[in-house]
Amino acid sequence: MREEPPENMKRVLLLGGTGDALAIARALSAAHVYSLAGLGRVPGDLACAVRVGGFGGIDGLARYLRTENIALVVDATHPYAAQMSRHARDACAFAGVPLWAVRRPAWQPQPGDDWRDAADWREIVARIALFRRPLFTLGREALAHLHEIPASQHWTIRCLEAHSGNARAKIVDARGPFDLEGERALFDAAGIDVVVSKNSGGRATEAKLVVARERGLPVVMLVRPSLPHADKTFDDATSARDALARWLDRIHSSET
Ligand code: NAP
């Protein structure tokens, strides 16, 4: 059974839903909280508390920070979860709580890459119009457009959702990381001729870009949203986890 944190103990709220966040959560003790939106898998093997579901906007989060005695928020959400990041920034400002953020650097095109930016769904559709077999790796967004697939196209949609698809679309329900061999096999089996991706950064889902490069296939890249300023920003989970360990040591020694 998890021990309740002592009253008035300063606690960390970690906003998650990514592999980076999970790696940080694994280093947190029972006093601290890992928060998930509730769309994906909820880990059952963490020492820290896990809460699931939205806070109810900026006000709800600011209230949560006060009532739960949160002394530091670490935003390790996905780079496209911009609303949560903005809410965290505003709620922390209201509540006077420092905000740290893990901001994974974007992937950069390499020699041989043919990347084409798209600002939104409408631009994605325009960019893929001349292709026949796109691979969508945007999450579940493409599922909302299954009825719009042109007769000239067959879509492969990889996302974390079991879905039967339709005659023009196959849904691949798979969770990363994805390796090179697996991605090559997927491209072969589905006859992929263009990739549609977020610029998520990191290693876990990078292999599809390598396969696109190997085959001279274009990648339609959904432009990253702009993210708010944080008091401290880290490129990866390891540096955030190390800084957090030092912060917790300092807090702990000032409390004892
Ligand atoms: P979003 O658009 O920025 O957030 C929508 C709302 O979901 C937020 O306003 C908040 O609700 C709630 N929420 C989001 N993250 C939360 C968290 N960690 N804890 C509690 N509530 C959270 O987010 P999204 O793009 O839908 O992503 C949802 C989750 O999936 C995030 O945790 C993100 O890290 C993860 N994820 C997203 C992507 C992506 O491509 N967007 C990819 C992989 C993983 P309230 O306003 O009610 O507080």
UniProtKB/TrEMBL annotation:
This is Cobalt-precorrin-6x reductase. Keywords: Cobalamin biosynthesis, Oxidoreductase. It comes from the Bacteria. InterPro entries: Precorrin-6x_reduct. PANTHER family: COBALT-PRECORRIN-6A REDUCTASE (PTHR36925). GO terms for molecular function: precorrin-6A reductase activity. The keyword Oxidoreductase applies. Pathway: Cofactor biosynthesis; adenosylcobalamin biosynthesis. It comes from Caballeronia novacaledonica. Pfam families: CbiJ.
